[in-house]
## 1
Amino acid sequence: MTLMAELTPNSEDRRGTWKVKAGLAEMLKGGVIMDVVTAEQAKIAEDAGAVAVMALERVPADIRKEGGVARMSDPGLITAIIDAVTIPVMAKCRIGHFVEAQVCRSSAAAAISGRRCGASRKARR
Amino acid sequence: MTRPRRVGVLALQGDFREHLAALRACEVEGVPIRLARDLDAVDALILPGGESTTMERLMEPSLRQAIGLRTQAGMPVMGTCAGMILMAKRVEDGRGDQQPLGLMDIDVRRNAYGRQVDSFEAEVESDAIGGSGPAVFIRAPQVTEHGPEVVPLASHAGQEVAMVQGKRLALAFHPELTPDRRWHQYFLSLDGERR
């Protein structure tokens, strides 16, 4: 996996700005972002024309079925998926868990969003 | 030849709305292009940013063919970021099955600057826009090789990031995400008088 940029931009270049973050979302418009839990699924999504994949620990339907809570994706899984595809890979962590978000970022995920960590509807019942 | 009056923007996926807005700011009519027949109504074409793999898959063979024929017949084409990848002759580091349109004699490497955390904003200087202007590089590609007919217009951090071959313009960055319209004006000038 290429974590380090092979080309180094100038030091006065501005990284992590609102424009490059919102800009990534602009590039995804009109496309499908598929939830995946394995590298094989990510490949299938890319082959089918997905603009990005969301690397999840479990998809919501399985959480409903099996019960339990929505958790962060396994960092090993995120890197395995990044290696498998050329499209951006997104990851989720529990809302407010900054260290989990930092782990996602270190895994070089393109975008990170929060997951509601409450028990699924079925588990609550 | 005159300045294009109606400019098509490939509208399969990506930031084509930003390009259409940029054309409006240049007082040129923008036309979303989804099918081969849409091309009949335009005198120039913009390939926007987005995911090159997705755009390739969504493009019908007839549209692909029509873009090739019109370009050969002299239609000006501009590609930004993923659009630049589509214009290339060869894609490195992409998927093995990627088939770009081959509109320019360039080889392109995808995600050459690294991943999204490495995306950046910078000032890029070029005679084409008469000075320095803002440029947004998002998971930007890099031209690794180009033929003798390709003229570099701008470089950044030692890499060529803008180039022209006849009436075909390829940019590694996104001028459409900035309020600066000089790159679009330059593109519109390729087929006529500079305004």
Note: Chain B touches chain A at residues 11-18, 49-51, 53-54, 57-58, 81-82, 93-95, 110-123, 136-139, 142, 156-159, 174, 177 (CB under 8 Å).
## 2
Amino acid sequence: MSTSMKKNIKQFITSPTFLLFLIFIALNVYFSLATNRFFRVNNYVNIIKQSTMIMIVGCGATFLMMTESLDLSVGSNLALTNIVYTFLAVFGIPFLGIAPMPLLLAGGIVILIGAAIGLINGILITRFKFEPFIATLALLYIGRGLALATVDGQSIRTGIPDGFGSIGNDELFGIPYLFIIVFFIVVSFMLLERKSVLGKHAVAIGANRNAAFFSGINVDRVIMGLYIMTGVLAGLAGILTASRFQFGDPRTGVGFEFNVLIAVLLGGTPLSGGKGTIFGTMIGALIVAVLGNGLNAMDVVRFWQTVFQGIILIGAIIFHSQMKSRGRAKLLAAGTRG
Amino acid sequence: MKKLVLVLLIVTLAAALPVFAGGGRERESERDYDFVFGKVPYTFEHAYHQSACRTLEEYAAREYNAKVIIIDGEANAEVTLAAIENLIAQGVDAMAMHTGDAGLSAAAVRLAHAANIPIVTTLIRPDIQTAPHIQPMETASSQYMGAEAARQWKAAHPDKPIRVAMLNFGGIPQIWEMRTGAFFDGVKSVDPNAQLVTMLNGYGSTVRSMEVTLDILQANPEVNIIFGANDEMALGALAACEQLGRGKMNDGVPVSEIIAGLDASSAALVKIFDPDSSFKLTHGAVRDVARAEADTMYGMVTGAIPVKEYFETQVLSQPIDFWNTSLAEAQRFLELNFFYTGSLAADVDAARSR
């Protein structure tokens, strides 16, 4: 084994992400010991299925949070795209006399809607200097309202065309399409994070926006692009959710933005930006899913589950700040020695 | 160091909490059961569903030596379907679901049947009728309540036309057939000129219903009969009326309006038997619905009931109102359906003195 490889492995083992991974394993061991119903292949397939939407949107949200931004509108974006996709596939655009659309065309339109929501967020934040919290909160309300208004608050469950549920439920060589899609998205974003300038720019903007600006990074363009990217991912999640459940529901995704936020925070991307990893977010998403599933298997009522989520979040923040202080102490020690 | 200790404390607390929260007994005890049933209630935030689940757990354990795993549907289609998937993944022997959505019920039935797990639905008939169904007979009881409310109003105020407002769940068509529409049919059977002024979504919540009712009464102060499609919404309507100086009766004689609800929880009955409160009618069926669910799951698991054939088990939804139900009957209803251990008369007195 080469020295650099050894160094890389040592770096990974001592990284917060690896420790987070150990916590994830510990949770699995705990639930497996605590209940007979947890440690089953079917249950793991189920856990991964239930965390796919958080993983998909979490990829964009991680990049955003690296830049010290956040997007609270992803849940509403998901709901709006979910219901519009179903509406277009079932009814078309009746007032324009357009018949029900092929799924691919409906999906394309809906991805554009997701991108448009991201674009509006980006414009409000970069051009009109809104705080990300305020801008995306406004879009959260607008998106949810539009989703409900589109169908008068009703869900669409009849007239669903053939093939609507394929992408969310069918398999290729025994592997669900959902897993394949998530795999490609996650790997792409990992490459973006590690091998592209976008990842470096996002970290640089979050670490010190002014320094990033003066070093030639077009900060506004990067942030705008990241909001559009996150909007597109939320739109895709809307389509996949509709397909998975085989109906459209404007009430889908309530609280989804907070699940994404928790996954990203658990994964080690702080609200203050400047660092973060896609891998960490994936582990964070799995921790959220395993926690919910394990507590359900243990027959713990939901009221307590929300208490756990809060406790886990506090624990994660303390854990990450602890790791940060250690990192600083190491740097100082190295500086003193040097 | 301090932070590390804090982290360790939090981890320990997190590990111990599920045990305190009721999940710790499961591993040892599950082996002692013959069956594991699953149940997805509409939402655990409603007293009705909490009591129904508790009844189901106790009855299934006692009669069939079955354990029941309950996963909250959180009044959300996505969460409900995820709960069904979780129960399937955990390999329960049979499951029951209570949701407000016919399409969602159908999707759940399809999922369960694909996994060869028997399922029984409750209240809202699924779009596809391929599994047993428990049907509380709410329509007749809602009609009765509507007629009784109209009779009482006309007796007290023969010159004031009946104007009805309703709070529903929104997006559940069968609620019209069983609750809101049936209630209004009852009102019209007494006064054909009665008008339905408005029907808005109270979201099944007391707080939201209070806000909505304030808006309704602001725009339509002439409203004199209000129906909430569950007790939580009726209690919200009452709170709004009281805030506006209404919500009163004169020893059971209507003054400003009559409010009706549904589920017959203890919070509702305390108001209903207060002669000075305008909340006066409700109906409900908890125990018999839960028992029917357990009986059906057991029947399907043992082969006595076909898993993929539709048939309805009908359950009486017992009407309870100030004018026709005795306090003793109401007390007994609460004991049987809501694990009520107090004294309704004492609770009514205590509420009046506040």
Note: The CA atoms of residues 22 and 41 of chain B lie 18 Å apart.
